[in-house]
Amino acid sequence: RAALDRAAVLLRIKRDVNRLDNVWGVGGGQRPVKHLVKEMNLLLREYLLSGEVSEAERCLRALEVPHFHHELVYEAVVMVLEGSGEGPVAMMVTLLKVLWETGLVTLDQMNRGFRRVYEELGDISLDVPLAHGLLERLVELCFDRGIITRALRDACPAR
C-alpha cells in the first residue's frame, strides 16, 4: 500500500518526465508524444550546430521509439523548409542518408515522415511561401542519394 501511495504522489507531481524515468525506468514508448517531439527537435538542432552524425544517431537510439522515427523525418524536412541556406539542406540529407543506411529509420518510417510533410504543405506554405520549390529540391536530392523511393518522389505535390 505504501508503494502505491508513493507512486500516486510521484505521478501527481508536475516535474520533468525524466525524473519519472529515473524512478520507474520508463521506456521510450511510455513517454508523452510532446516530450518525444521536443527531444527530436533538440536532437536535430544540436546536429545542425555540431554536424556530428554519430551523436545524432546515438541520441535517436537512446529515445527507444523506432515506431516514432517518422517524426524525426518530418521535423527534419520541416526544419529544412523553414531554414535558410544550403548548409542545413546538405546536412539533413546527410543525416537522413546515414539513418537510412544504418537501418535506424526504416522505409515505412521514411515514407510516413515525407507523406506527412506532403499533406501539410499547404499550411507550411502559408509561413514559408517558397516551401514547394524547396521541398521539390530536397525530395530530388534525397532520391538521388537513394534515401527515398521513386514512388515517394513522384508523390511530392507539384506547384
TrEMBL record:
InterPro entries: ARM-type_fold (IPR016024), Initiation_fac_eIF4g_MI (IPR003891), PDCD4 (IPR039778). Keywords: Cytoplasm, Nucleus, Repeat. SUPFAM superfamilies: ARM repeat (SSF48371). It is found in: Cytoplasm. The keyword Nucleus applies. PROSITE patterns: MI (PS51366). Residues 35-158 form the MI domain. One of its GO terms (cellular component) is nucleus. It holds the Pfam family MA3. SMART domains: MA3 (SM00544). The keyword Zinc-finger does not apply. It comes from the Eukaryota. One of its GO terms (biological process) is negative regulation of DNA-templated transcription. Belongs to the PDCD4 family. This is PDCD4 protein. The lineage of its organism: Eukaryota, Metazoa, Chordata, Craniata, Vertebrata.
